[in-house]
């Protein structure tokens, strides 16, 4: 399985990747994107099985990326890993087609709870 991790912070991408490994998803291929526009392009070129995206990013937000993917007919599983998790954001994420929203701080157990049904 291939997982695309999109965040404008390289450090945050590494934290997400490390948490994926701690949660037991260490045998999956990881692709990184530095913002929503990069993620949108890499969904086409890399064909990931799951996208984990930050919400706030330059050039294109995570929500805009998800909306663009769904408008283009892509059904790639998509979840947010972001610093905020307000009820409004969770509703917007769900309405756009996100499977989950993981708010920081998160743990390996949080990832397992949200990803076990998505990652086979």
Describe the structure in your own words:
The protein is globular and about 35 Å long. 43% of the residues lie in helices and 19% in strands. The relative contact order is 0.19. The chain has a five-stranded parallel sheet, with helices on both faces. With 120 residues, the protein is an alpha/beta fold. The mean pLDDT is 96. Strand 4, helix 4 and strand 5 form a beta-alpha-beta unit. It starts with a strand and ends in a 5-residue tail after the last helix. Helix 2 runs parallel beside helix 3. The protein contains five helices and five strands, in the order E-H-E-H-E-H-E-H-E-H.
- Helix percent band: 40-55%
Which residues form runs of ≥5 with pLDDT under 50?
A: none
Total strands: 5
First-to-last CA distance: 8 Å
Strand content: 15-25%
Largest sheet: spatial strand order: 2-1-3-4-5
Structural class: alpha/beta
Mean pLDDT equals 96
User: Which assembly state applies to the chains in this document?
Assistant: single chain
Q: Which descriptor suits the 3D outline?
A: globular
Q: Helix-strand pattern, N to C?
A: EHEHEHEHEH
Biggest sheet record = 5 strands, parallel
In DSSP terms, counting alpha (H) and pi (I) runs of 4 or more, how many helices? 5
The Rg value, from CA coordinates, equals 13 Å
